What does this fold into?
Amino acid sequence: MGRRTPLYDLHVELGARMVDFGGWDMPVNYGSQIEEHHAVRRQAGVFDVSHMCVIDARGPRARPFLSKLVANDVAKLKSSGKALYSCMLNEAGGVIDDLIIYFIDESFFRIVVNAGTRDKDLAWMREVAAPFGVELTERTDLAMLAVQGPQARATVAGLLPAEHRDAALALAVFQGRQLGDWFVARTGYTGEDGFEVMLPEGEAVAVWRKLNAQGVKSAGLGARDTLRLEAAMNLYGNDMDEGQNPLESGLAWTVSFEDPARDFIGRKALESLKAGGLKKKLVALVLDDRGVLRGHQKVVTPSGEGEITSGTFSPSMEKSIALARVPRDTGATVQVDIRGKLLNARVVKAPFVRNGQVLVS
Amino acid sequence: MSNIPADLKYTKSHEWVRTLADGNVEVGITDHAQGALGDLVFVDVPEAGKTLKAGDAFAVVESVKAASDVYAPIAGAVLEGNPALGAQPELINSEPYGGGWIARMKPNGAPQGLLSAAEYQAHLAAEG
It folds into this structure.
Protein backbone atom coordinates (compact mmCIF):
# COMPACT_ATOMS: atom_id res chain seq x y z
CA MET A 1 0.00 0.00 0.00
CA GLY A 2 1.25 3.42 -0.93
CA ARG A 3 0.84 6.75 0.79
CA ARG A 4 -2.60 8.31 0.68
CA THR A 5 -3.78 11.88 0.38
CA PRO A 6 -6.69 13.20 2.50
CA LEU A 7 -8.87 12.65 -0.60
CA TYR A 8 -8.13 8.91 -1.03
CA ASP A 9 -11.49 7.65 0.29
CA LEU A 10 -13.35 10.17 -1.84
CA HIS A 11 -11.51 9.08 -4.99
CA VAL A 12 -12.51 5.47 -4.32
CA GLU A 13 -16.09 6.54 -3.63
CA LEU A 14 -16.14 8.43 -6.95
CA GLY A 15 -15.09 5.26 -8.80
CA ALA A 16 -11.49 6.19 -9.52
CA ARG A 17 -9.03 3.65 -10.82
CA MET A 18 -6.16 4.01 -8.34
CA VAL A 19 -2.52 3.50 -9.33
CA ASP A 20 0.87 3.85 -7.72
CA PHE A 21 2.51 7.18 -8.55
CA GLY A 22 5.85 7.90 -6.90
CA GLY A 23 4.87 5.80 -3.88
CA TRP A 24 1.37 7.33 -3.60
CA ASP A 25 -1.99 5.70 -4.35
CA MET A 26 -3.47 8.21 -6.79
CA PRO A 27 -6.49 8.33 -9.14
CA VAL A 28 -5.54 7.80 -12.80
CA ASN A 29 -9.10 8.37 -14.02
CA TYR A 30 -12.70 8.31 -12.80
CA GLY A 31 -14.04 6.52 -15.89
CA SER A 32 -12.88 8.21 -19.06
CA GLN A 33 -9.54 9.98 -19.19
CA ILE A 34 -10.49 11.62 -22.49
CA GLU A 35 -13.71 13.11 -21.08
CA GLU A 36 -11.75 14.48 -18.12
CA HIS A 37 -9.24 16.01 -20.52
CA HIS A 38 -11.95 17.72 -22.57
CA ALA A 39 -13.68 18.98 -19.41
CA VAL A 40 -10.51 20.86 -18.44
CA ARG A 41 -10.06 22.33 -21.93
CA ARG A 42 -13.73 23.34 -22.24
CA GLN A 43 -15.12 23.93 -18.71
CA ALA A 44 -13.19 22.94 -15.59
CA GLY A 45 -11.68 19.97 -13.82
CA VAL A 46 -10.19 19.37 -10.39
CA PHE A 47 -7.04 17.33 -9.68
CA ASP A 48 -5.80 16.08 -6.33
CA VAL A 49 -2.15 17.18 -6.19
CA SER A 50 -1.81 16.77 -2.44
CA HIS A 51 0.99 14.27 -3.06
CA MET A 52 3.21 17.12 -4.15
CA CYS A 53 5.47 18.41 -1.42
CA VAL A 54 4.98 21.91 -0.02
CA ILE A 55 8.04 23.23 1.83
CA ASP A 56 8.16 26.55 3.66
CA ALA A 57 11.61 28.18 3.78
CA ARG A 58 11.91 30.67 6.61
CA GLY A 59 14.73 32.87 7.81
CA PRO A 60 16.29 36.26 7.08
CA ARG A 61 18.65 34.66 4.55
CA ALA A 62 15.97 32.73 2.66
CA ARG A 63 16.55 34.68 -0.57
CA PRO A 64 20.35 34.17 -0.68
CA PHE A 65 19.72 30.46 0.02
CA LEU A 66 17.36 30.16 -2.96
CA SER A 67 19.71 32.21 -5.11
CA LYS A 68 22.30 29.49 -4.53
CA LEU A 69 19.87 26.57 -4.72
CA VAL A 70 18.08 27.09 -8.03
CA ALA A 71 19.08 27.91 -11.62
CA ASN A 72 16.49 30.61 -12.19
CA ASP A 73 17.08 33.87 -10.34
CA VAL A 74 14.87 34.63 -7.33
CA ALA A 75 15.88 38.30 -7.76
CA LYS A 76 13.00 38.26 -10.29
CA LEU A 77 10.61 37.83 -7.33
CA LYS A 78 9.97 41.46 -6.38
CA SER A 79 6.36 41.64 -5.25
CA SER A 80 4.72 39.44 -2.63
CA GLY A 81 2.92 36.44 -4.09
CA LYS A 82 4.99 36.28 -7.25
CA ALA A 83 5.93 32.73 -8.35
CA LEU A 84 9.01 31.46 -10.18
CA TYR A 85 9.50 28.14 -12.01
CA SER A 86 13.01 26.73 -11.83
CA CYS A 87 15.21 23.68 -11.82
CA MET A 88 17.36 22.69 -8.87
CA LEU A 89 20.67 21.34 -10.23
CA ASN A 90 23.51 19.22 -8.94
CA GLU A 91 27.14 20.33 -9.34
CA ALA A 92 27.31 18.56 -12.72
CA GLY A 93 24.35 20.60 -14.00
CA GLY A 94 21.96 17.64 -13.88
CA VAL A 95 18.38 18.30 -12.81
CA ILE A 96 17.59 17.15 -9.25
CA ASP A 97 14.01 18.39 -9.62
CA ASP A 98 11.87 21.16 -11.05
CA LEU A 99 9.89 23.29 -8.64
CA ILE A 100 7.87 26.45 -8.06
CA ILE A 101 8.89 29.09 -5.54
CA TYR A 102 6.36 31.58 -4.18
CA PHE A 103 7.73 34.76 -2.61
CA ILE A 104 5.67 35.63 0.46
CA ASP A 105 8.04 38.02 2.25
CA GLU A 106 11.80 38.45 2.68
CA SER A 107 11.95 35.81 5.39
CA PHE A 108 9.33 33.42 3.97
CA PHE A 109 9.30 31.62 0.61
CA ARG A 110 7.09 28.63 -0.21
CA ILE A 111 8.45 25.89 -2.45
CA VAL A 112 6.50 23.11 -4.19
CA VAL A 113 8.44 20.06 -5.40
CA ASN A 114 7.46 16.76 -7.02
CA ALA A 115 6.07 13.85 -5.00
CA GLY A 116 8.45 11.17 -6.25
CA THR A 117 11.55 13.23 -5.45
CA ARG A 118 10.42 14.48 -2.03
CA ASP A 119 13.02 12.70 0.11
CA LYS A 120 16.10 13.41 -2.00
CA ASP A 121 14.94 17.01 -2.55
CA LEU A 122 14.53 17.65 1.16
CA ALA A 123 17.90 16.09 1.98
CA TRP A 124 19.61 18.21 -0.66
CA MET A 125 17.79 21.41 0.30
CA ARG A 126 18.61 20.93 3.99
CA GLU A 127 22.29 20.52 3.14
CA VAL A 128 22.32 23.69 1.04
CA ALA A 129 20.20 25.60 3.59
CA ALA A 130 22.34 24.86 6.63
CA PRO A 131 25.00 27.56 6.13
CA PHE A 132 22.22 30.12 5.51
CA GLY A 133 20.42 29.26 8.74
CA VAL A 134 17.19 28.76 6.79
CA GLU A 135 14.55 26.54 8.36
CA LEU A 136 12.67 24.17 6.00
CA THR A 137 9.27 22.86 7.06
CA GLU A 138 7.26 20.24 5.16
CA ARG A 139 3.61 21.30 5.13
CA THR A 140 2.07 17.85 5.38
CA ASP A 141 -0.93 19.51 7.03
CA LEU A 142 -1.98 21.00 3.69
CA ALA A 143 -3.95 19.43 0.86
CA MET A 144 -3.54 20.81 -2.64
CA LEU A 145 -6.19 20.98 -5.36
CA ALA A 146 -5.50 22.10 -8.93
CA VAL A 147 -8.69 23.53 -10.42
CA GLN A 148 -8.09 24.14 -14.11
CA GLY A 149 -10.08 25.23 -17.14
CA PRO A 150 -11.84 28.32 -18.48
CA GLN A 151 -14.44 28.23 -15.67
CA ALA A 152 -12.03 27.29 -12.88
CA ARG A 153 -11.21 30.69 -11.39
CA ALA A 154 -14.78 31.91 -11.16
CA THR A 155 -15.90 28.64 -9.57
CA VAL A 156 -13.15 28.63 -6.95
CA ALA A 157 -13.75 32.30 -6.18
CA GLY A 158 -17.40 31.47 -5.55
CA LEU A 159 -16.37 29.08 -2.77
CA LEU A 160 -14.32 31.71 -0.97
CA PRO A 161 -15.78 33.98 1.71
CA ALA A 162 -17.17 37.13 0.08
CA GLU A 163 -14.35 39.34 1.36
CA HIS A 164 -11.71 37.28 -0.49
CA ARG A 165 -13.39 36.82 -3.88
CA ASP A 166 -12.19 39.99 -5.56
CA ALA A 167 -8.64 39.41 -4.34
CA ALA A 168 -8.65 35.89 -5.80
CA LEU A 169 -9.96 37.07 -9.16
CA ALA A 170 -7.41 39.90 -9.21
CA LEU A 171 -4.45 37.51 -9.04
CA ALA A 172 -2.15 37.84 -12.03
CA VAL A 173 -0.81 34.80 -13.88
CA PHE A 174 1.88 33.10 -11.77
CA GLN A 175 0.87 34.95 -8.61
CA GLY A 176 -0.45 33.55 -5.34
CA ARG A 177 -1.88 34.90 -2.11
CA GLN A 178 -2.96 33.74 1.31
CA LEU A 179 -6.74 34.28 1.57
CA GLY A 180 -7.99 33.20 4.99
CA ASP A 181 -7.07 29.51 5.43
CA TRP A 182 -6.35 29.04 1.73
CA PHE A 183 -3.29 29.85 -0.31
CA VAL A 184 -4.63 30.50 -3.80
CA ALA A 185 -2.26 30.69 -6.78
CA ARG A 186 -2.94 31.28 -10.46
CA THR A 187 -0.69 28.46 -11.58
CA GLY A 188 -1.17 25.03 -13.10
CA TYR A 189 0.10 22.27 -15.31
CA THR A 190 -2.50 22.03 -18.05
CA GLY A 191 -2.08 25.01 -20.38
CA GLU A 192 -5.40 26.39 -19.14
CA ASP A 193 -6.16 29.22 -16.77
CA GLY A 194 -6.97 28.17 -13.24
CA PHE A 195 -5.95 28.05 -9.62
CA GLU A 196 -3.91 25.79 -7.44
CA VAL A 197 -5.26 25.92 -3.90
CA MET A 198 -3.40 24.82 -0.77
CA LEU A 199 -5.80 24.38 2.11
CA PRO A 200 -6.04 22.63 5.49
CA GLU A 201 -6.31 18.91 4.77
CA GLY A 202 -9.55 18.61 6.76
CA GLU A 203 -11.34 20.92 4.31
CA ALA A 204 -10.32 19.12 1.13
CA VAL A 205 -13.15 16.59 0.81
CA ALA A 206 -15.91 19.16 1.34
CA VAL A 207 -14.33 21.56 -1.14
CA TRP A 208 -13.97 18.80 -3.76
CA ARG A 209 -17.66 17.90 -3.39
CA LYS A 210 -18.68 21.55 -3.73
CA LEU A 211 -16.57 21.87 -6.89
CA ASN A 212 -18.24 18.75 -8.33
CA ALA A 213 -21.65 20.20 -7.46
CA GLN A 214 -20.69 23.37 -9.37
CA GLY A 215 -19.91 21.31 -12.49
CA VAL A 216 -16.16 20.93 -12.02
CA LYS A 217 -15.28 17.40 -13.14
CA SER A 218 -13.00 15.15 -11.09
CA ALA A 219 -9.89 14.54 -13.17
CA GLY A 220 -7.07 12.04 -12.68
CA LEU A 221 -3.37 11.78 -13.37
CA GLY A 222 -4.08 10.36 -16.83
CA ALA A 223 -5.75 13.56 -18.01
CA ARG A 224 -3.13 15.60 -16.17
CA ASP A 225 -0.47 13.94 -18.32
CA THR A 226 -2.21 14.46 -21.68
CA LEU A 227 -3.00 18.08 -20.75
CA ARG A 228 0.56 18.92 -19.69
CA LEU A 229 2.01 17.26 -22.77
CA GLU A 230 -0.33 19.23 -25.08
CA ALA A 231 0.92 22.32 -23.21
CA ALA A 232 4.49 21.02 -23.83
CA MET A 233 5.33 21.19 -20.14
CA ASN A 234 8.16 18.94 -19.01
CA LEU A 235 7.59 16.06 -16.61
CA TYR A 236 10.42 15.34 -14.20
CA GLY A 237 11.77 11.81 -14.60
CA ASN A 238 10.60 11.64 -18.24
CA ASP A 239 11.82 14.77 -19.98
CA MET A 240 14.71 15.58 -17.65
CA ASP A 241 16.48 14.01 -14.69
CA GLU A 242 19.85 14.05 -12.94
CA GLY A 243 21.55 12.75 -16.09
CA GLN A 244 20.30 15.68 -18.20
CA ASN A 245 20.91 19.41 -17.99
CA PRO A 246 18.19 22.03 -18.44
CA LEU A 247 19.83 23.53 -21.56
CA GLU A 248 19.29 20.27 -23.48
CA SER A 249 15.85 19.73 -21.92
CA GLY A 250 13.94 22.68 -23.37
CA LEU A 251 14.46 24.59 -20.12
CA ALA A 252 17.12 27.16 -21.08
CA TRP A 253 14.47 29.83 -20.45
CA THR A 254 14.48 28.89 -16.77
CA VAL A 255 18.24 29.29 -16.29
CA SER A 256 19.45 32.78 -15.48
CA PHE A 257 23.09 33.61 -16.20
CA GLU A 258 22.45 37.38 -16.16
CA ASP A 259 23.94 38.18 -12.77
CA PRO A 260 27.63 37.26 -13.16
CA ALA A 261 28.09 37.26 -9.37
CA ARG A 262 25.37 34.69 -8.69
CA ASP A 263 27.06 31.36 -8.00
CA PHE A 264 24.11 28.97 -8.25
CA ILE A 265 24.80 25.25 -7.96
CA GLY A 266 25.49 23.79 -11.40
CA ARG A 267 26.43 27.11 -12.99
CA LYS A 268 30.06 26.21 -13.71
CA ALA A 269 29.06 22.91 -15.29
CA LEU A 270 26.44 24.57 -17.52
CA GLU A 271 28.90 27.25 -18.61
CA SER A 272 31.47 24.68 -19.63
CA LEU A 273 28.78 22.67 -21.48
CA LYS A 274 27.81 25.82 -23.37
CA ALA A 275 31.46 26.60 -24.15
CA GLY A 276 31.96 23.09 -25.50
CA GLY A 277 28.82 23.31 -27.64
CA LEU A 278 25.49 21.73 -26.68
CA LYS A 279 24.78 18.44 -28.47
CA LYS A 280 21.07 17.84 -27.97
CA LYS A 281 17.78 19.69 -27.76
CA LEU A 282 14.25 18.88 -26.69
CA VAL A 283 11.69 19.26 -29.48
CA ALA A 284 7.94 18.87 -29.91
CA LEU A 285 6.78 16.24 -32.42
CA VAL A 286 3.51 15.51 -34.20
CA LEU A 287 2.96 12.10 -35.78
CA ASP A 288 1.02 12.28 -39.03
CA ASP A 289 0.96 8.51 -39.58
CA ARG A 290 -1.38 6.37 -37.49
CA GLY A 291 0.11 5.16 -34.24
CA VAL A 292 1.06 6.46 -30.82
CA LEU A 293 4.41 7.96 -29.81
CA ARG A 294 5.64 6.71 -26.44
CA GLY A 295 8.56 7.39 -24.14
CA HIS A 296 11.84 5.62 -25.07
CA GLN A 297 10.98 5.06 -28.73
CA LYS A 298 13.99 5.67 -30.95
CA VAL A 299 14.04 8.81 -33.10
CA VAL A 300 16.02 8.61 -36.35
CA THR A 301 17.42 11.78 -37.95
CA PRO A 302 20.12 12.45 -40.57
CA SER A 303 22.30 13.82 -37.73
CA GLY A 304 21.97 10.74 -35.55
CA GLU A 305 19.58 9.14 -33.12
CA GLY A 306 17.36 10.64 -30.47
CA GLU A 307 14.71 9.42 -28.08
CA ILE A 308 11.10 10.20 -27.27
CA THR A 309 10.99 11.42 -23.67
CA SER A 310 7.17 11.69 -23.37
CA GLY A 311 4.59 10.64 -25.90
CA THR A 312 0.86 10.21 -25.94
CA PHE A 313 -2.32 10.53 -27.96
CA SER A 314 -3.55 14.12 -27.88
CA PRO A 315 -7.31 14.16 -27.25
CA SER A 316 -7.53 17.78 -28.44
CA MET A 317 -5.70 17.15 -31.74
CA GLU A 318 -6.73 13.50 -32.20
CA LYS A 319 -3.15 12.78 -33.21
CA SER A 320 -0.13 11.51 -31.37
CA ILE A 321 2.31 14.07 -29.98
CA ALA A 322 5.58 13.86 -28.10
CA LEU A 323 8.60 15.57 -26.65
CA ALA A 324 11.90 14.12 -27.86
CA ARG A 325 15.57 14.69 -27.17
CA VAL A 326 17.33 14.83 -30.55
CA PRO A 327 20.64 16.04 -32.04
CA ARG A 328 20.97 19.82 -31.84
CA ASP A 329 20.84 20.38 -35.64
CA THR A 330 17.74 18.25 -36.26
CA GLY A 331 15.58 19.78 -38.97
CA ALA A 332 11.86 19.84 -39.67
CA THR A 333 11.17 16.12 -39.93
CA VAL A 334 12.29 12.94 -38.16
CA GLN A 335 11.35 9.29 -38.16
CA VAL A 336 10.29 7.33 -35.11
CA ASP A 337 10.78 3.58 -34.72
CA ILE A 338 7.47 2.15 -33.50
CA ARG A 339 7.69 -1.64 -33.14
CA GLY A 340 10.18 -1.88 -36.00
CA LYS A 341 8.36 0.44 -38.42
CA LEU A 342 9.78 3.89 -39.18
CA LEU A 343 6.96 6.44 -39.09
CA ASN A 344 7.24 10.11 -40.12
CA ALA A 345 6.92 12.87 -37.54
CA ARG A 346 7.18 16.64 -37.82
CA VAL A 347 9.08 18.96 -35.50
CA VAL A 348 6.69 21.74 -34.46
CA LYS A 349 6.78 24.85 -32.32
CA ALA A 350 5.63 24.19 -28.75
CA PRO A 351 3.09 24.29 -27.18
CA PHE A 352 0.60 22.14 -29.08
CA VAL A 353 -2.48 23.51 -27.27
CA ARG A 354 -2.99 26.57 -25.07
CA ASN A 355 -6.14 28.00 -23.51
CA GLY A 356 -8.41 25.62 -25.37
CA GLN A 357 -6.90 26.40 -28.78
CA VAL A 358 -4.95 23.91 -30.89
CA LEU A 359 -1.91 25.87 -32.11
CA VAL A 360 -0.30 23.21 -34.31
CA SER A 361 -1.75 21.94 -37.56
CA MET B 1 -17.86 -5.67 -11.98
CA SER B 2 -16.75 -6.64 -15.46
CA ASN B 3 -19.03 -8.39 -17.89
CA ILE B 4 -18.13 -12.02 -18.78
CA PRO B 5 -20.63 -13.57 -21.25
CA ALA B 6 -21.24 -17.26 -20.51
CA ASP B 7 -21.22 -18.35 -24.17
CA LEU B 8 -17.59 -17.30 -24.89
CA LYS B 9 -14.20 -18.87 -24.12
CA TYR B 10 -11.34 -16.91 -22.57
CA THR B 11 -7.58 -16.78 -22.05
CA LYS B 12 -5.60 -15.83 -18.98
CA SER B 13 -4.21 -12.93 -21.02
CA HIS B 14 -7.76 -11.49 -21.31
CA GLU B 15 -8.76 -12.38 -24.86
CA TRP B 16 -12.16 -13.89 -25.70
CA VAL B 17 -13.11 -16.38 -28.45
CA ARG B 18 -16.53 -16.80 -30.06
CA THR B 19 -17.20 -19.80 -32.32
CA LEU B 20 -19.28 -18.71 -35.31
CA ALA B 21 -21.88 -20.82 -37.13
CA ASP B 22 -19.43 -21.64 -39.94
CA GLY B 23 -16.80 -23.01 -37.53
CA ASN B 24 -14.56 -19.93 -37.79
CA VAL B 25 -13.92 -17.85 -34.68
CA GLU B 26 -14.04 -14.19 -33.71
CA VAL B 27 -11.58 -12.88 -31.12
CA GLY B 28 -11.30 -9.74 -29.05
CA ILE B 29 -10.28 -8.49 -25.62
CA THR B 30 -12.45 -8.75 -22.53
CA ASP B 31 -14.42 -6.07 -20.74
CA HIS B 32 -11.93 -6.36 -17.88
CA ALA B 33 -9.02 -5.75 -20.27
CA GLN B 34 -10.58 -2.69 -21.91
CA GLY B 35 -11.38 -1.27 -18.46
CA ALA B 36 -7.79 -1.70 -17.34
CA LEU B 37 -6.43 -0.09 -20.52
CA GLY B 38 -8.75 2.91 -20.44
CA ASP B 39 -9.81 4.92 -23.51
CA LEU B 40 -8.48 3.20 -26.64
CA VAL B 41 -7.03 5.45 -29.31
CA PHE B 42 -5.28 3.12 -31.76
CA VAL B 43 -5.55 -0.53 -32.77
CA ASP B 44 -3.13 -2.34 -35.03
CA VAL B 45 -5.22 -5.22 -36.41
CA PRO B 46 -3.66 -8.26 -38.11
CA GLU B 47 -3.65 -8.67 -41.88
CA ALA B 48 -5.69 -11.37 -43.59
CA GLY B 49 -3.73 -14.49 -44.43
CA LYS B 50 -1.34 -14.34 -41.50
CA THR B 51 -0.79 -17.72 -39.86
CA LEU B 52 -0.60 -17.73 -36.07
CA LYS B 53 0.34 -20.09 -33.31
CA ALA B 54 -1.64 -19.87 -30.08
CA GLY B 55 0.05 -17.25 -27.92
CA ASP B 56 1.56 -15.22 -30.79
CA ALA B 57 1.24 -11.45 -30.38
CA PHE B 58 -1.05 -10.64 -33.31
CA ALA B 59 -2.50 -7.19 -32.61
CA VAL B 60 -1.63 -4.09 -30.61
CA VAL B 61 -4.16 -2.02 -28.71
CA GLU B 62 -3.11 1.42 -27.51
CA SER B 63 -4.95 3.47 -24.95
CA VAL B 64 -4.06 7.02 -23.95
CA LYS B 65 -1.95 5.36 -21.26
CA ALA B 66 -0.03 2.54 -22.92
CA ALA B 67 0.37 0.03 -25.73
CA SER B 68 -0.48 -3.63 -25.09
CA ASP B 69 -0.05 -6.73 -27.21
CA VAL B 70 -3.03 -8.95 -27.92
CA TYR B 71 -2.22 -12.66 -28.13
CA ALA B 72 -3.80 -15.19 -30.47
CA PRO B 73 -6.03 -17.37 -28.28
CA ILE B 74 -5.89 -20.22 -30.81
CA ALA B 75 -3.72 -21.42 -33.69
CA GLY B 76 -5.02 -20.63 -37.16
CA ALA B 77 -5.11 -18.23 -40.08
CA VAL B 78 -6.38 -14.65 -39.93
CA LEU B 79 -9.43 -14.21 -42.19
CA GLU B 80 -9.78 -10.48 -41.50
CA GLY B 81 -8.96 -7.77 -39.00
CA ASN B 82 -11.89 -5.60 -37.92
CA PRO B 83 -11.85 -2.73 -40.44
CA ALA B 84 -14.02 -0.51 -38.20
CA LEU B 85 -11.34 -0.18 -35.52
CA GLY B 86 -9.16 2.06 -37.71
CA ALA B 87 -11.57 4.95 -37.38
CA GLN B 88 -13.27 3.86 -34.15
CA PRO B 89 -10.85 2.18 -31.74
CA GLU B 90 -13.23 3.17 -28.93
CA LEU B 91 -15.61 0.40 -30.09
CA ILE B 92 -13.43 -1.88 -27.94
CA ASN B 93 -14.38 0.23 -24.90
CA SER B 94 -18.07 0.50 -25.69
CA GLU B 95 -18.70 -2.98 -27.16
CA PRO B 96 -15.80 -5.25 -26.22
CA TYR B 97 -17.75 -8.41 -27.14
CA GLY B 98 -19.58 -6.94 -30.16
CA GLY B 99 -18.46 -4.21 -32.56
CA GLY B 100 -15.05 -4.20 -30.87
CA TRP B 101 -13.97 -7.63 -32.14
CA ILE B 102 -10.37 -7.56 -33.34
CA ALA B 103 -10.03 -10.42 -35.83
CA ARG B 104 -11.79 -13.40 -37.38
CA MET B 105 -9.74 -16.57 -37.69
CA LYS B 106 -9.95 -20.02 -39.26
CA PRO B 107 -8.86 -22.36 -36.48
CA ASN B 108 -6.18 -24.92 -37.09
CA GLY B 109 -7.54 -27.93 -35.18
CA ALA B 110 -9.49 -27.88 -31.94
CA PRO B 111 -8.73 -24.96 -29.59
CA GLN B 112 -6.54 -25.91 -26.62
CA GLY B 113 -6.50 -24.67 -23.06
CA LEU B 114 -9.21 -22.00 -23.22
CA LEU B 115 -11.11 -21.03 -20.07
CA SER B 116 -14.86 -21.14 -19.54
CA ALA B 117 -16.59 -17.99 -18.30
CA ALA B 118 -16.56 -19.37 -14.73
CA GLU B 119 -12.86 -20.23 -14.96
CA TYR B 120 -12.03 -16.77 -16.33
CA GLN B 121 -14.06 -15.19 -13.52
CA ALA B 122 -12.03 -17.23 -11.01
CA HIS B 123 -8.80 -16.17 -12.76
CA LEU B 124 -9.77 -12.48 -12.45
CA ALA B 125 -10.58 -12.94 -8.78
CA ALA B 126 -7.20 -14.61 -8.19
CA GLU B 127 -5.36 -11.82 -10.05
CA GLY B 128 -6.96 -9.38 -7.65
Remarks:
- The radius of gyration of chain A is 20 Å.
